[in-house]
Amino acid sequence: MTIAEKIFARRWIRDLARGEIGVPWVQPGDAGFVQTDIRFSHEYVTPMSAIFFEQLVGENERVLEPESVLFFRDHLTFLKDAMSPARVQLGLLNVAEQLEVKQREFAEKQGIRLYGELGHGKHGSEAICHSKILESYALPGQVIIGSDSHTPHAGAVGCVAFGVGTTAIFNSWITKDVRVEVPKSFRVIVHGEKPENVTAKDFMLEILRHPYIKDGHAIGQIIEYAGPGVEALSVDERATMTNMAAEVGAFTGIVAPDQKVVEYLVEQRGMAGADAEALLEGLCSDPDAVYVKTIEIDASALRPMIALPGDPGNGMHVDELEEPVRIDIAYAGSCTAGKKEDMDMYARVLREAVERGERKPEHVQLYIQCGSQEVYRYCQEQDTTACSRRWAPPLSNPPAARASTLAPGFPASPPT
Length: 416
Hints:
With 416 residues, the chain is α/β, with parallel strands linked by helices. Helices cover 35% and strands 19% of the residues. The protein has 17 helices and 19 strands. α2 packs across α7 and α8 runs parallel beside α11.
């Protein structure tokens, strides 16, 4: 079996009433129910699921194991800034704000952890849902479902994490399981050592333009990333690849956990090394596991890439551009690239630019968004004093801080 099939087999429900879980093996096409470890949803899905729950299960009934359920307010926190006056007059902003109220009230009633808005005059949210799941919750071998297409983000530590809809979230609150049909798997093997200026995002832009993916053959399949080039990446960088399983159109993305995952769990979660090591047992694909396709990439031959508008599969090397492209807005971060290591990269780029005497052009708006408040705090803990000295005097037209925060030492007004 592949690693994903092994995880499904471990969590496969034989008899829910008797609590019998686990089967010797599964294969693509098998359909059944698997027990989840984590169930999360954001403010688009939680309110409707809550209404279903109260109407169909009972007003005073309890969600099963609320400690393994998480809610997030991360999609609509800037809606009041972005919605047009005409739509506000139609009452759409009020309708959207009711979603926040319903989610918050249901969370309080059920005792469910809600990562909500910052409050106290600050703009933004506590965390982007799948960013926080990887930071604080996901473990190797788990099954995780979430109401967002980028739920596979957590596959970076060797778990099966995939997006589901409102009905599946609602059902999981009752039984803790989810119905699946085991997908086929394909594998991407990255050989060689990447150049210093190539990142996991370049890996993905190269993968996305491969005919197998570009022509839609990978839709609904599991993408397993392997090879020396992937093993050399940090967990944060692997998460960029599993996150972008959504852009592939895949069911989920996964990387077999290794010593780097152990180190991540020890450093990020404070786990004991032996406990983290124990989670890795058996979590690897068998040598004779069946894949419908294997794509091989030479990391050493890659160069920095961009994707032309309209499709992330429209990738090309930056040095292939025939002429310079004027940029009006530069935005770094988001759920894919708002992790700690991403912030280190942005800081390095800005620092090197300053050392060369370069400045941000006046017409360019530059935004850097952290994926969570934990990442924001990480940025604050860096050598902000030294960074601030490098940036003095401040820009004459600093970009406004959005979402969580800007990177350390970057002038912002107002700070968040």
